[in-house]
TrEMBL record, chain A:
An individual GO BP term: transmembrane transport
Broad class of where this protein is predominantly found: membrane
InterPro entries listed in its UniProt record: MetI-like, MetI-like_sf
One GO cellular component term: plasma membrane
Family that this chain belongs to: Belongs to the binding-protein-dependent transport system permease family.
Protein name: ABC-type nitrate/sulfonate/bicarbonate transport system, permease component
Keywords: Cell membrane, Membrane, Transmembrane, Transmembrane helix, Transport
Annotated TM spans: 7-27, 73-93, 114-143, 191-207, 227-248
Entry membrane topology: Multi-pass membrane protein
Gene3D superfamilies named in the record: MetI-like (1.10.3720.10)
Organism of derivation: Promicromonospora thailandica
Subcellular location, record wording: Cell membrane
From TrEMBL, chain B:
GO molecular function: ATP binding; ATP hydrolysis activity
UniProt-listed SUPFAM superfamilies: P-loop containing nucleoside triphosphate hydrolases (SSF52540)
Coiled-coil stretches: none
Keywords in alphabetical order: ATP-binding, Nucleotide-binding, Transport
Protein name in UniProt: NitT/TauT family transport system ATP-binding protein
Gene3D superfamilies: P-loop containing nucleotide triphosphate hydrolases
From TrEMBL, chain C:
Swiss-Prot/TrEMBL keywords: Cell membrane, Membrane, Transmembrane, Transmembrane helix, Transport
Organism ancestry: Bacteria, Bacillati, Actinomycetota, Actinomycetes, Micrococcales
UniProt-recorded name of the protein: ABC-type nitrate/sulfonate/bicarbonate transport system, permease component
Gene3D superfamilies, A to Z: MetI-like
Similarity comment: Belongs to the binding-protein-dependent transport system permease family.
InterPro entries: MetI-like (IPR000515), MetI-like_sf (IPR035906)
Length: 267, 295, 266
């Protein structure tokens, strides 16, 4: 009995406020004739027909949303690989770190959206430009956090790995990457939100397709309910990506959560 | 338990599993930022195959520097260190190390069993043999039931047992231990000391055990190397005639134990005051009776 | 840091290596276009970019834009900070509120703030308010989430003690909750400061709110490539200044605090 109550309580707590907000939006906008603030019922009505209109292969979901997300994943993936590789190299060498640090600090500080107009010069407005923009924007947080993580590796663990004659590959795999993984995940999380921003604005700037492109098209054409449906869809994409990210990072850092707790308790 | 078990009854002085460790005119000067620091001035000693030698000295005597040079983790400024006749330039095969910082020498992202297994994987030990070694050594240190746990879920003493199990499973010819029990409580410490003696006798390997604890050095060692303060030289190479079988109550109550303890204690005190050779030491309790094994 | 300035031993000091890094970088940037490795129309040599920067720095236009950018950034950051701290402390201190809002916060936080760009354009056209909306939405969560975890980190014993002495809620917040939360809030501020700058420039580029980003966009579309790079350098320097300022502020406020909080906790 108490078990049922507890489940009920947690469902109520989780869904309560979102439901209240949605209902409030629904009813306050219901009779709305304001141009910018269409009824929620109208937005949701257009949502299906805007994004999922059959056949699925030709719907906006397939034509606009999927390419956007694929570009994001491509750029993000490149940034992860390059950032971790460079970060391990820079983090492992004191001299290289000192050499690169001021330049990296500067590049990190450049707000990534300014990359869009710069790279448009070189690469036009195609997929390559967008992927490169996302990759470069995501690179810095991954790179700098990896450097921190590698630099912070416990020297005792390094000695242990050397004393037991772990080779380069094993040292990278079992010591460096695992030991730096908490920082790498932090960097990857920062990079993901920057990547989403860049995905959207590179399409808003100049594009032929994509989620950001569609939303701006709707706005310019004063298709307001469609625009709102796009805003909501973009929000949902952001939430879904962060859920996936969280699941992956939990799996990667399972040891770290317990380890940190044990350090806290012991201190 | 196949391989360790059948050597268990072998006499102590017949140790086929060990290798000879030679140190000749070892010198180490740190040159970092600022003034160069001479940590080790001139060390010469030898550890015979299958011997258990303890190294004591005042704090800051360069004990850890010495151990890191032996382990091949730190290049010597001059002099030679060799293992079984081969000069040590980097961490040599056949050598295992147990460090003082047990909590930091185990990989926190690996289970206890994985920590023990990793060096074996790298040594390309076949999978079945790896599993056997992991099980055997974890059982030998009394940790068979926590093989799947993470190191940080264990107490300090248990973590150090994992480090010992990892070293033993590696089947080294030489085991180096750097103040391994400095950070565990007294009870656990006694247990771990007996564990080291037991494993050493069973495996017949060469052990170099660095400690700042004089009682521990005498209780464990066949010989005790007393070091001077930095820059380090060997003050005296003290033979320990306490026999092969030691017992925390019996041995520590032994008159010979007390005599050695007094002697080494005085040496360390003199070393602290800067005495750099036995001839210069003013000992109030001279170590005149040469120790007889089993007396 | 001061240690690295001492010339000793065989080690080259870090600042010299860093300087060498900057010089090498500038050299590559100078030579690559001159040797034809990259198209000089798209990436002019470093000397010409720096010359354009020097020339821009003499125009009032740049300084006005810089002021506008800083105003938008500062206003947005201040609003986020106040709102984040107040709401964070209130929600964090009342367990019912925390439970009720948790799912909503978790859902709204990852919603990308750039989704609001069309809304901002419709509501405010090119005015500062539109960009402010983006800035506040993005940086508010950074502060709120940090403050919430700070309030949760309050020592339960201290909290119980305060309750048993019947402190008023305000006194309890001032003496027990706030000292624990402050370091978290500072971390939130540091993260929010750089996010706010990103969104300020985004708004200027895309919506056309006056500021450095707008000038950059104009320079790009009018083919003034050297000026465009000069503005990129300005935004970079601005970013460096923001980072240094936020870090210095964090250190200054927390100089008494025993635990210097790391990045990972964020």
């Amino acid at each position: 009995m108490t078990g049922v109550l507890r489940v009920l309580r947690s469902v109520l707590l989780t869904l309560g406020l979102p439901a209240v907000i949605l209902l409030a939006w629904w009813f306050t906008s219901a009779g709305s004739t304001t141009f910018y603030n269409p009824p929620l019922s109208a937005i949701l009505g257009t949502f299906r027909e805007t994004w999922f209109s059959a056949p699925l292969g030709e719907s906006r979901l397939a034509v606009d949303v999927v390419p956007s997300v694929l570009r994001l994943l491509a750029g993000y993936g490149i940034a992860l690989v390059a950032g971790i590789a460079l970060g391990v190299a820079i983090g492992s060498s004191r001299a290289l770190r000192a050499f690169a640090e001021p330049v990296l600090e500067f590049f990190r500080a450049i707000p990534p959206p300014v990359l869009v107009p710069v790279l448009m010069l070189f690469l036009g407005i195609g997929d390559t430009m967008k992927i490169v923009v996302i990759a470069i924007g995501c690179l810095w947080p991954v790179l700098l956090n990896t450097v921190e993580g590698v630099r912070g590796l416990d020297p005792v663990l390094r000695d242990t790995a050397r004393a037991y004659r772990l080779g380069l590959v094993a040292t990278l795999r079992h010591l460096v990457l695992r030991g730096a993984s908490p920082q790498i995940v932090t960097g990857a999380r920062q990079a993901l939100s920057i990547g989403i921003i860049l995905m959207v604005i590179s399409e808003m700037f100049a594009a032929k397709d994509g989620l950001g492109f569609s939303i701006v098209q709707f706005q310019r054409g004063f298709a307001i309910p469609e625009m709102w449906s796009g805003v909501i869809l973009l929000g949902v994409v952001g939430v879904l990506l962060s859920l996936v990210f969280r699941a992956v990072s939990h799996a990667v850092l399972r040891w770290y959560l317990g380890y940190r707790q044990s350090q806290h308790g012991g201190a | 338990m196949s391989s360790p078990a059948n050597v268990a009854d072998r006499p102590v002085d017949d140790h086929p599993g060990g290798a000879r460790l030679e140190v000749r005119n070892l010198r180490k000067v740190y040159t970092g930022r600022g003034e160069p620091v001479e940590a080790v001035a001139d060390l010469t000693f030898e550890v015979r195959p299958g011997e258990l030698v303890c190294v004591v000295g005042p704090s800051g005597a360069g004990k850890t520097t010495l151990l890191r040079c032996l382990a091949g983790l730190l290049p010597a400024t001059s002099g030679d260190v060799s293992l079984g006749g081969a000069p040590i330039t980097g961490p040599p095969p056949g050598m295992a190390v147990v460090l003082q910082e047990y909590g930091r020498s185990l990989f926190p992202w690996m289970s206890v069993a994985q920590n023990v297994e990793l060096p074996l994987k790298e040594k390309r030990v076949p999978k079945a043999r790896r599993a056997e070694l992991v099980d055997e050594t974890l059982a030998a240190v009394g940790l068979a039931d926590v093989a799947g746990s993470y190191p940080w879920q264990l107490s300090g003493g248990m973590q150090q047992r994992v480090a010992i199990a990892r070293a033993v499973a590696y089947e080294p010819q030489v085991l180096l231990m750097d103040e391994p029990f400095a950070a565990v409580d007294a009870q656990t410490r006694f247990e771990l000391e007996d564990l080291v003696r037991t494993l050493w006798k069973r495996l017949g390997i060469t052990v170099v055990f660095v400690t700042h604890d004089i009682d521990e050095a005498i209780y464990l060692g066949e010989r005790v190397l007393v070091l001077s303060a930095r820059p380090t030289v060997v003050l005296e190479d003290v033979a320990v005639g306490l026999g092969a079988d030691r017992d925390q109550l019996e041995t520590r109550g032994d008159a010979e134990f007390a005599r050695l303890r007094t002697h080494v204690y005085e040496l360390v005190q003199q070393a602290k005051q800067g005495v750099r050779s036995l001839a210069d030491a003013h000992l109030t309790h001279p170590a005149d009776t040469p120790p007889r094994a089993g007396a | 840091m001061t240690r690295t300035h001492r010339l000793a031993g065989r080690r080259t000091p870090a600042w010299a290596l860093g300087l060498a890094g900057v010089v090498v970088f500038l050299l590559v940037l100078e030579l690559a276009p001159r040797l034809g490795l990259v198209d000089a129309r798209f990436l002019p040599p470093a000397s010409r970019i720096l010359a354009a920067l020097a020339e821009r720095l003499r125009t009032p236009e740049l300084w006005t834009a810089l002021g506008q950018t800083l105003t938008t950034w500062g206003t947005g950051l201040a609003i986020s900070l106040v709102a984040g701290v107040v709401l964070g402390v209130v929600i964090g201190s009342v367990s019912v509120l925390r439970a009720v809002t948790a799912s909503t916060i978790e859902f709204l936080r990852p919603v990308p703030s750039v989704a609001l760009i069309p809304v901002a354009v419709l509501l405010y056209s090119t005015g500062m308010a539109g960009t402010l909306l983006l800035v506040v939405y993005a940086s508010f969560w950074q502060v709120l989430v940090q403050v919430l975890s700070g309030v949760q980190d309050v020592d339960p014993v201290a909290s119980d003690t305060a309750r048993s002495y019947r402190f008023s809620p305000l006194t309890r917040i001032r003496t027990v909750v706030w000292p624990t939360t402050l370091p978290y809030a500072m971390t939130g501020l540091r993260l929010a400061a750089s996010v706010a700058l990103i969104l300020t420039v985004t708004g200027e580029l895309l919506i056309g709110t006056p500021g450095i980003g707008k000038l950059l966009g104009i320079a790009q579309s009018s083919g003034a490539v050297e000026s465009m790079y000069a503005y990129v350098v300005v935004t970079g320097l601005l970013g460096v200044a923001v980072n240094l300022l936020a870090r210095a502020l964090e250190g200054r406020v927390l100089f008494w605090h025993p635990s210097v909080r790391g990045e990972v906790a964020a």
